[in-house]
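Question (not urgent): is this output format expected?
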Amino acid sequence: MTYRSPLLNRAGAVAAETASGVKAGESRPREAAPSGARADTSASVQAASEPEQGFSAGATSADGGVAAHYGNPVAEQRALESGAAVVDLSHRAVITVSGPDRLSLLFTLSSQQVTDLAPGDSSELLLLDIAGRIEHAPAITDDGETAWLITEASHGPALADWLEAMKFTFRVEIADRTSEFAVLGSTSLLPEGLPCASPAQWKDPWPRLGPGAESYSAIDDADHPGQGWTWHLTMVPRESLEDVVTYLEAEGWQLAGCFAAEALRIAAWRPRLAYEVDAKAIPHELDLIRTAVHLSKGCYKGQETVARVHNLGHPPRRLVFLHLDGSEHTLPAVGSEVLAPADASDVDALAKERAVGAVTSVARHHEAGPIALALVKRKVDPQAQLVVRDLNQDVQETQEEPALPSFYAAAQEVIVRPDAGRNVGRPQGDFLRGPRR
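Got this back:
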């Protein structure tokens, strides 16, 4: 059954699934090519613009069921940044692992050292496939008896089922508690005196280096834009969600939509499972070695790839931050292609240009304007002026003639540096794909 938050009944609430991909309250225009130019929409161009393997070609909102905003996304974003707003994230999944062996189980299966996680402390961990690709990336906090895992709504059931299948002789109990507890997001701790007790709170470690971690960033940690990012997830009984929000409003807090949270997250270069992680993503590409991987820890699924890429090679793609052209009144859709053209002014050439990456997250920041995160090939020149090409697939579905693509100039900031990894004695071939047969 599709989830719908009771807070969507608030005046002005706009559901995230109806507002994703463009500026709040707007639809993307049908005539999107620059004035005086018409892009070639022939079959050869369609083939040329097919995204290369490993790049997402489109996405839907991962925040379905909660509000994108409540009528004023800019004011909500400013309130959230100042620490005076709370975001309804009640669609997120909550999984618990209880029992004396809970941290040992999670240590055995994951990329993170959690056996010494103290009650009240927070961390994040990755569960990888055999090739080192990310399958799950839950937030974790422990209360001394139970480990609380928070993840994307679409990942909750699969995460619970997998943990249940892997517990073997560990003395643990796995439970999907999503129906019992709702999640609220904020940039400061919620005040005391809530009308109900919170079983657990999680504080995002990003971007501070954890034990056994390493930065893949191109800048010093002191200059990382995430240093100003603080993010808390608070769990409350689901039946008390509205009462908690009403209490916070009486205390001077404001209800903000997920648009506000996404804009601040993107500005902090913070990758998210629902958007930055595709079927081929490995931790190195997203700078997740800094907060979600302990490099001295071994013997978990995918660990060989983590070690080999880190010690011998480079990640095949890298995360970048994009400043998008602010003259447009729309935003490109998640999944739009990233180009590195020799001539950004030639519209026909742009229509045929092969993609070097894809937009993974996009938002309109109250100060920086339109911004995005994108995954691009490692060898893309860090100094190159990029262009985002939105094929307007949502418009094409509503009209007979193919819609013209939209183009957005994009200035890149390097998040994961191209030379990340040590590149010492790197073997020939692509060990991520395995040997040829």
